[in-house]
Amino acid sequence: MEVKNVQTLAKDKNEFVSSIIANSKGNVLLFKRNKNLRLDPGKFDFCSGHMKNGEVPMQSMLREIFEEMGLRYEQLSYMDKITDLETPHPKLKGTLTHLYYIELDIPIEKVNDIIQNVEEPELEDAEFLKDVDELKEKMQLEKENFRMEYTEQMKKALEELKEIINKRKQQKGEKECERK
Question: Half-sphere exposure (CA, 13 Å, Cβ side) for 164?
Fold first, then answer.
């Protein structure tokens, strides 16, 4: 797996990690939280969670990916930190979220099977959206159904994500041309 923007400093426990996951075509994975959870049951969300004391952001993100999706580091195609932003959740104002992009090429049926079979399922359903623009539109039109708010910082982060995905597609296209 190719990894970019690794942080080495340990962070404090009032920080969070979150990942926007897409496949190599740019389809964005959106999850629905388990309806039995105490916090925000049934809301749309990304794979995310609290950082534990002494963890660095990437370490926390990989732990959350394993806990919520049952996936290990080796199964991810690519990981890049998009940005740090104020946590876009009304109850967590003033805290920091480290937002990552993860590329993962797994069929949606397999994703749903995996998330339903983790030890303590926090996510109960997943769907692929066409692209980042569809995610932005859905976040704006269905804001009451999302755990995260569509803030100005989130808007900028999603624009950065579009650039990362487009650059990845371009690089893959160039590699394909080199092979021919």
Answer: 25
Bridge partners (DSSP) of residue 47 are: 19
CB 26 within 8 A of CB 32: no
Please list the alpha-helical segments (H only) found in the chain.
57-69, 108-116, 132-141, 152-179
- Chain segment 88-119, per-residue pLDDT in tens: 877 777 889 999 999 999 999 999 999 989 88
Q: Tokens 């993860």 identify what position? A: 102
Specify the pTM. Answer: 0.86
- State pLDDT tens for residues 120-143: 899 999 999 999 999 999 999 999
Q: What are the boundaries of each domain within the chain? A: 2-175
Asked: is 2-175 a CATH 3.90.79.10 domain? The reply is yes
Instruction: Answer yes or no: are the C-beta atoms of 95 and 49 closer than 8 Å.
Output: no
What end-to-end distance do the CA atoms of the chain give, in Å? 24
Distinct helix (H) and strand (E) counts, the chain: 4, 8
Using CA atoms, how far apart are residues 19 and 64, in angstroms rounded to an integer?
A: 9
